[in-house]
Amino acid sequence: MFRVDYSQYSLTELEEAINSIDKEKYVENYQALMNEYSKREKKLAVYNEQTESQLESCEQNIKTASEFERLLGICFFGLIFGAPIGAEVDPNTLTGSDIFFSLLLMSMFGGLLVHSFNNGWTLGGNIKFYIAEDPIMFTVAQLIYAWLLGFSSTIFVLAIFF
Question: How far is residue 102's CA from residue 121's CA, in Å, rounded to a whole number?
Fold first, then answer.
């Protein structure tokens, strides 16, 4: 009798084979098929467990990164330290391109700031900073984004209203 090597089958192919095999006629192959399927189920269960624990870890990072007090503090920092520097600019010297560039900077740094609050990681140089792995550098990157956002927002307000 021909013996099938089920170790090369995908999980879908194993399930199809289980549904289509004649259990009485191919007893040894059926047993080998069930053994291989059982091994795969165990591996799949371990993989699912690991994935769930990683998801829980990510959810905790996002929760920490987007706490209201943290969000308020970072944005307040940006306004406190960015606005005075932007306010030193003489509004009479601002042109239409200054409005464009201030809007561009606001969208760039505002987007990075929102992304970091939503996802629990941000960019700094060529590196991703995760709040769980390096909370200090993650916070420093957020503070820089907030400062630049406060600065560019002040320039925008000066260019539009003054």
Answer: 25
Residues 77 and 149 sit within 8 Å (Cβ to Cβ): no
DSSP H helices, 66-95, are: 68-87
Chain-centre distance for alpha carbon 48: 20
Residues 22-78 have pLDDT tens digits of: 888 888 888 888 888 888 777 777 777 777 777 666 666 556 666 777 778 888 888
Q: Which residues contact 148 (CB under 8 A, 6 or more apart)?
A: 78, 82, 105, 109
Amino acid at 116: S
- HSE at residue 8, side-chain half, CA atoms within 13 A, is 2
DSSP codes joined into one string, 97-136:
HHHHHHHHHHHHHHHHHHHHHHHSEEEETTEEEETTT-HH
As a whole number of Å, the end-to-end CA separation of the chain is 91
* Cβ 115 vs Cβ 62: under 8 Å: no
Alpha-carbon distances, residue 32 vs 2, 10, 85, 139 (angstroms):
12, 14, 74, 55
